[in-house]
Amino acid sequence: MAITGLLLPSSLILATLTLLAIQAQGITRHYDFNVQMANVTRLCGTKSIVTVNGQFPGPELIAREGDRVHVRVTNHVPHNMSIHWHGIRQLRTGWADGPAYITQCPVQTGHTYVYRFTVTGQRGTLWWHAHISWFRSTVYGAIVILPKLGVPYPFPAPHKEVPVLFGEWWAADTEKIMSQALKVGGAPNISDAYTINGLPGPLYRCSAQDTFKLKVTPGKTYLLRLINAALNDELFFSVANHTLTVVEVDAVYVKPFTVKTLVISPGQTTNVLLTAKPVYPNANFYMSAAPYSVIRPGTYDNTTVAGILEYHKPGPPSTSSFDKGLPLYKPVLPFFNDTKFVTRFTTKLLSLATPEYPAAVPQSVDRRFFFTIGLGTLPCPKNMTCQGPNGTQFAAAVNNVSLVLPSTALLQSHFTGLSKGVFLSNFPAMPTSPFNYTGTPPNNTNVATGTRVLALPYNTSVELVMQDTSVLGIESHPLHLHGYNFFVVGQGFGNYDPTNDPAKFNLVDPVERNTVGVPAGGWVAIRFLADNPGVWFMHCHLEVHTTWGLRMAWLVQDGSKANEKLLPPPPDMPKC
Length: 576
Prior knowledge:
This protein is mainly beta. Helix content is 8%, strand content 37%.
C-alpha cells in the first residue's frame, strides 16, 4: 500500500514561507520623528524644550534583529538638528549615524531627512539622541531590539519589559548655559535634578506628583532596560531590598550575575532582571540613582533621583495599589567617589562566549594605539577674562589634540575626495610628548587644536589603550565609539605598562560594548576589527568634555570587495 505525503493547505505553506523570509531578512519599520518645541513643567517651573513628537522622553523605537529601519526626521524648531542611533553598527551606512559635522550636515529648520539603516547581529537595548550641541538633554529615547522571531532570550523570559531612562534636568536653557560657559572658558552650571523617564520624583521640590512608579506582581520577573541618558554624570542605581541580575550591556548578552547596586555611565545601557518578592510585602521601595564622581576640585549635581517600586495588592483589581501609609524603604548607595565599587562591578562583566553568542575577540593585532584622555587648557583670548584654571579656558583632548568640528561633514569630504582644507589624516597614534600621565601634572597644560583623523585600512585589527591623565585632576571618562562594538580586554590603575600589562588581558570572554569608562587615574584596553568603512566619531560621553574637545574620528577605508565599501549617500542628505 502506498503512503502519500501529508498535503498542507496552500495558505499555510505561504504563511510558513513568509515567516521564514521575515526571520531571514526582517521587515522594514517606519517611524516619523517630528522635532518640535513643547512646554514642560518640572520643579515648579515651566520651560519650552526641544522634543520629538512633543514627547519627553521621546518615543520608543522597536525593531527586531535583521529589520530595516527608516526614521523620517522633520525639523520644526529654530535650531539645526541631527539624531544618532547610539550603538547601532551602521554597517556601510555611516550616512545614517547622526553626529553633526562628522557623518552629516545637520537637518536645518523646515527640512527633512530619512535615516535608513539595518539592525544586523544585534539584540537588546540601545538608545537614540540628538547629536548636536546640548540638545540631547531633552531629545532622547529608547531603542528596543528584540531577537529574531522564534529566538528566545538566553535567560528566563520576563513577565514584562520596562525601559528606565536616566536623564538630567536644568531649570535654565541648556543652550544658554553651554554658550555662556564657552564664552568665559569656565565650567557650565550643573543640572538641577536627575530624572527617571523624564520625572524628578519625590526627593526634589514640588515633584512628588512627577514620580516614576513601577507596579509589580509578587513572584513575577521584570526586565528593566536601563539607559543612562544623563549629559554629564555616571550613576549608581539600586532598588531597596531587591537584587538585580545583569544579563546584557550595550545590546550584548553577558554572563548573568546578581548585585544590589550597579553603575552605569552616560551612553551605556544595562538590562537587568528584577524578581518581585514571592508574597505581598506590605511596603513600597525606592528605585534610586545618584552620581559617581571623583572630580576634585570641581562641582557636580550631588542629588539623588528616586522612583517607587510598588506591589499590586492581593484582592480585586479595583483596589488601589499604592498605599502612602506603607513603609517606604530606601537603598543604601555607595559613596559618590567609590572607585573600588565601580571597578568590582565592571570587572564582573563578561561575554557569554557560547556557540550561539561567541566572543570574536581579535587574537592578533595589526595596529596598536595609545591615547591619553583628559582635560587641559587653552590660552585666554586677548581682552577677555577667562574662568578656567589660572585665568585660562577649559579644554579637553585625545593625545593632546582638541578636535575642532569642521563646517562641513567629514564623511562627505572623505567620500568625495575633497578633504583638503577640511581635515588632515595625521592624528597621532601615541602621545607626541610622553609624561608621567597619572603623576605630578606638567607645567604646560595647554592642548593643541585641529581637525585630524586616524586612517585605517579595511579589516585592520586594532588594540587601543586609553589612559586617563591627572593634568587637571584624575577623572573617569566614558568613551563611546560610533559604528563599532569593541572588546574590553584589560584595565588597571596608574600608568599603563606595555611590557607587563598585556599578559593580564582577557582574550577569551571579555565584555563587548560600545561605551567604556576609562578608569579615574587608570587605563583601559580595547580591541576591535575595523570592518566597517566610513568616518567614525569617538568621544567622551560627558557632554561638557565633548564640547571642550575630547573627541576624535577614525577613517576606515573601503575594502576591495563590493560588500566592503561605503554605500553612496542617499539623495536627501542634508547640506551644510
